[in-house]
Prior knowledge:
The protein is α/β, with parallel strands linked by helices and 561 residues long.
Amino acid sequence: MxxxxxxxxxxxxxxxxxxxxxxxxxxxxxxxxxxQLIENDQLEFIMEAHDGLSAKIVEEAGFKGIxxxxxxxSASLGVxxxxxxxxxxxxxxxxxxxxxxxxxxxxxxxxxxxxxxxxRRLVKKLCQRGAGGxxxxxxxxxxxxxFLRGDKQPxxxxxxxxxxxKAGKDSQLDDDFVIVARVEAFIAGWGLKAAxxxxxxxxxxxxxxxxxxxxxxxxxxxxxxxxEWDNRSPVVLVPTKYYTTPTDDFRRKNVSLVIWANHxxxxxxxxxxxxxxxxxxxxxxxxxxxxxVPVKEIFRLQDDQEIADAEKxxxxxxxxxxxxAVVLAATRGKLLGHLTGDIPKTMLKIGxxxxxxxxxxxxxxxxxxxxxxxxGYKAEAINLPxxxxxVNEQYEETGQMSSLAAAVDQLDQSTLIxxxxxxxxxxxxxxxxxxxxxxxxxxxxxxxxxxxxESDFVVATQPDHQSxxxxxxxxxxxxxxxxxxxxxxxxxxxxxxxxxxxxxxQAFIEQQQESPxxxxxxxxxxxxxxxxxxxxxxxxxxxxxxxxxxxxxDLTIANEF
Length: 561
Ligand code: SPV
Ligand code: MG
């Protein structure tokens, strides 16, 4: 008589109802999934895994459950299947496996890692970490793998082991959690009678299924047990040694679950040995490359795509669209005389650090690490680490746009363009970085309008109201001239371009490069081009806090700065 038959039919009915409601397997609790695998009317299969990756591979292959093999997990950790890995170390592996998959894990819990009390804690922890169930075997802790040394397989006392099963059932936090009792009577050479006695005691103690193990290379022991057992409760088998038995024979004998117990770890060992041996012999990678998966297969299994999608949702604008910087530093700075005999102006030390070092450290503070410096005069003197140095060979006879042209490839992303000879306070970069407009220029409103000194002066839609709430200001005009009342301030040499504005700048450079006048163009001509094109040029005002170093007298101010 199949005593569990009614229960099986009831579960099948539940399954069908759920199928009708199109409830996805993955939405069902893992405990419930495992319970249904064990209790439904068909032969089911679960496959060994020993870490998160192999667990994922088991699920992708189409299996409905995972065997958390004690042998596989211990081997992959490089220890023996003798409880050398602690139970919490095993639990950590189970958690990785569970997190990586949506199908249930039946953990090979060895002997329960101690007495009834250890079993209670194990079951609670497995429920918390998302396992579907645990299988415990009636041996003595620390156990030895069933296929090793038959004389070293002492069996547990039946009552003691039954108490452990009861304790486990009483501790599970989820009604559907599955406890499988594994009978080792055949393994220890105790015969069918002992196997039946033990299986029956464990069934009565509340085990949800009996795993009957055998190390024979045929299924005679197993089939003799199945005959006498007569479907009293679900039976689980591990046909590692009797693998020649046709699977349909298990089906005919109403076996509930077959465990393919160690075939992924064995397969991976074979492959690792082959690949390691080949590379060691060849001292190159040419032969192995076609024997192994490409790196992108690892990324796929790790579900890198999910991070790529999440980055779009969660990362800050700046991280999504990292800003680059281009520092224009080609000029010598002739007015500085012997100070720039061997170095370009940008490498001039102000205090302990050069102008360029200061700019680079400001950029790094804002996580801007992709920095291109356009060198010219004494380019080799620009020797700071982690910089991309490009050279404008015609630095002597050309202007800033020719230098920018040397870094034109960099304008494919948001880019800060910074003059290489200015000292400025760090916060000024933030004004440019955080402004979402396509083109942003930093303009100093503190200008001596009576001076006749010429520079890049800007006429803007709004003067600097020095208020956070003031109306936005945009450049109407920029010219190299002396300042007068029409000017709102001076462009200091810090500009930000969005990827869109960067493309416009690239097009402008490409178009103008043909012209003989290109060498004369400066950054203000690019700004002027934006204005002419109708691209708004946002003005971010500052008031002082920067110095451009042109002549010896500037050095005094710079040193004070
Ligand atoms: C395991 O996979 O660790 C098992 C099955 O316990 S066996 O190794 O066949 O005993
Ligand atoms: Mg085991």
